[in-house]
Each structure stands twice: as structure tokens, then as C-alpha cells.
């Protein structure tokens, strides 16, 4: 077999329809593009969200632009400076709510490292930042992460 012997499989290759070549061809006059109009003209059609000259949705409502991750997890933040004078006992989301530091238990709790801590704290929360972890462990405390409910 040589290069000039290669042929497509029988029935796999059709000749292109020649549009605009008379009534008998089946694609005469408007060449299958309907009654004229913007989409019948040559060149690109309007962009996908074009609204015929009306002020487009993304310009009427700028907040509709972009992307929103529906799986985003929003954390309730607690800084170390608010835990500096903790009265002892384990720090859990329930104890933080009872102390009035967080509003509800629907969101998982994350401890951030803003501030200093002197006492050894026992922390049981969903997440802890690296700076908060190093400060708590340097003061002799311990950290235990709990699983967030889906």
C-alpha cells in the first residue's frame, strides 16, 4: 500500500452541499439562511448574551458577573486576643457560644493568630491557622481538630 492508494471508508465522505446555486439544488436563493436578518449575513453573529441592543443583564446587574463557588465553606473567626483571658477549661464551639464570642453553631470555627496567649489552652475547633497553632503550642497548649458537619 502506498500513500496514493489511501481512500476514506466507503460512505464516510460526502461532497459538500453547494449553496446558492439555483432552485433545483434545494439550497437556492437564501442558501438555507431563512428570510434574511442579522444571522443570515456574512461574518460573525452577535455574541451569545447579546440582547438586541437592550442594556445587557451583566450591565444592568453587575453582581451577576463572575463565578460563585457553591461549595465554599464560611468559617466563624475567633482571634487569639479574645481567648487570651480564657477562664480555663476546653475551648469548643459550644463553650465559645456560651461565652458570647460566636453567635451560632451553624458555621465551623477557625482560630486565627492575631494577639498573644500566655496560658496553656486546650482548643477543639474545626480549623486553626499556622500562626495560632505555633502560639498555642509555644504556651504549652494543645489543639484538636474536629470534623465539620456537612
Describe the structure.
With 150 residues, the protein is of the alpha/beta class. The protein has a domain at 76-145: Ribosomal Protein L15, Chain: K, domain 2. Helices cover 15% and strands 13% of the residues. The protein has four helices and six strands, in the order αβαβαβββαβ. The chain has helices at 57-60, 80-83, 93-98, 130-138, and strands at residues 76-79, 90-91, 109-112, 122-125, 127-128, 142-145. A three-stranded parallel β-sheet has the order 1-3-5. A three-stranded parallel β-sheet has the order 2-4-6. It starts with 56 loop residues before the first helix and ends in a 5-residue tail after the last strand.
Describe the structure in brief.
The chain is of the alpha/beta class.
Write out key terms for the chains shown.
13% strand; Ribosomal Protein L15, Chain: K, domain 2; 4 helices; 150 residues; elongated; three-stranded parallel beta sheet
The CATH architecture category of the domain at 76-145 equals Ribosomal Protein L15, Chain: K, domain 2
Lateral strand order in the biggest sheet: 1-3-5
CATH class of the domain at 76-145: Alpha Beta
What percentage of residues falls in helices of 4 or more residues? 10-25%
What would the CATH topology of the domain at 76-145 be?
Ribosomal Protein L15, Chain: K, domain 2
What's the helix and strand layout?
Elements: H1 57-60, E1 76-79, H2 80-83, E2 90-91, H3 93-98, E3 109-112, E4 122-125, E5 127-128, H4 130-138, E6 142-145
Parallel strand pairs: 1-3, 2-4, 3-5, 4-6
